[in-house]
Amino acid sequence: MRRKVTCTAQTLTGEHAALLLAQLDLTALLVLGGREGLAEDLAGAAASQGYEPRIRGGGWADAAGADLVVLDAVQDDTAREIAERCSGAVVIVATATPVTDVQRLLDGTHLPRARIIGASVEGAGPITAAARAVEIADAVLRDRRRALSAAVLVLGEEGDEGVQLRDARIGAGGVQAIL
């Protein structure tokens, strides 16, 4: 069964993440925002890249019930939209400021801390940032239980508190353990 995944594409990181998610060939992919025709372009690349073209564009209303959300930008209404439409999703943040944006989403959505994960993208170009976000998405979708560097909310582990870049075991449901 294909999982429903929503990916914002406001930046090159989001566009690259959408392509990499499509190439995983595990999901029905909804692309939010981005340049006009991006979803159609990604679907058109399916035959030559060997993945099923289960990609479409849309808005937050179409994202309802998503299992996974990959964000390349956090707008003022992003937390509200996720809380209202994707409250069961794991959220992966691949923005330029993942630590800040993870905290902002935790505060705005009230989702469990295990389900909001920031990709470690500091100093990375858009392709590397997208690849790191999709690596986390793959770990969640396939329950790989991989140890990955991510921005996660730490609550007393090793005496620390707050959102920090840490190694975490990531699998189905998001963060399974902070290492």
Percent range for helical residues?
25-40%
Average of the residue pLDDT scores? 95
State the shape. globular
What is the top-level CATH class? Alpha Beta
CATH superfamily: NAD(P)-binding Rossmann-like Domain
The number of helical segments is 6
Percent strand:
25-35%
State the low-pLDDT regions, or none. none
- Helix/strand structural class: alpha/beta
Main sheet summary:
9 strands, mixed
Strand order of the largest sheet: 3-2-1-4-5-6-7-8-9
The N- to C-terminal Cα distance equals 31 Å
**Record field, number of beta strands:** 9
Radius of gyration: 15 Å
Q: What is the CATH architecture descriptor?
A: 3-Layer(aba) Sandwich
Q: How many domains? A: 1
Per the CATH scheme, the topology name is Rossmann fold
Order of helices and strands: EHEHHEEHEHEHEEE
Overall description:
The structure is a single chain. With 179 residues, this protein is an alpha/beta fold. It has a single domain, classed as Rossmann fold (3-Layer(aba) Sandwich). The chain is built from six helices and nine strands. It has helices at 12-24, 38-44, 46-49, 78-85, 98-109, 126-141, and strands at residues 3-8, 27-32, 55-58, 68-71, 90-93, 116-119, 146-155, 161-171, 174-178. The longest helix has 16 residues, at 126-141. It is globular and about 50 Å long. The chain starts with a strand and ends with a strand.
